[in-house]
Amino acid sequence: MMANFVETPDWSSLPRPTDDGAARHLLGQRMAAVALPATDGRTIDLAVLPGRVVIYAYPRTGLPEGPNPEGWDAIPGARGCTPQSCAFKDHYHELRALGASAVFGLSTQDTDYQREAATRLHLPFALLSDDQLRLTRAMNLPTFTVGTMTLLKRFTLIVQDGQVQRVFYPVFPPDQNAAEVVAWLAADPGRERGGT
Fold this sequence. Notes:
By secondary structure, this protein is of the alpha/beta class. It contains five helices and nine strands; from the N terminus they run E-E-E-H-H-E-H-E-H-E-E-E-E-H. The strands form three sheets. The chain has a five-stranded mixed β-sheet. A two-stranded antiparallel sheet has the order 1-2. Strand 8 and strand 9 form a beta hairpin. The N terminus is likely disordered.
């Protein structure tokens, strides 16, 4: 059950994203050495983190009282950032027990904006900001544009010692992504057991 009573959209009424091949090149790639600000005050370089790291990318979180950009619901895969983040929160301890040394959310929103969402949603992990698009450009991450915003398409990476081991793309529905990652980690015979 989703925490904080997050309203889950009717996914059947929203356009489903298709695999446009924009993430195909990421499998096996080394993470670019880019220091990203985190909502917990740290600076994180995903290229040097040891162990298995889960990174879910999402377009943007909106403010509860604020409107989405015009036409947001018509963009395949755009809607669902809060349900996705809450699902990763709900599965966080399970992900850690299955060998994830860290879990991060990633978007192109700035850290102050992300911090509001991390606090409001009580996330037990940090959100990383690529608001300067340095990681996005270095790794040619899948993006789309809304108005003046360059936003990440929704995908999830499993990174082992700085190298992309698994790519989930496209991700739909977003609130099921964390469970898919849990299932993959549970079935992966090469995993190392993590902490709690």
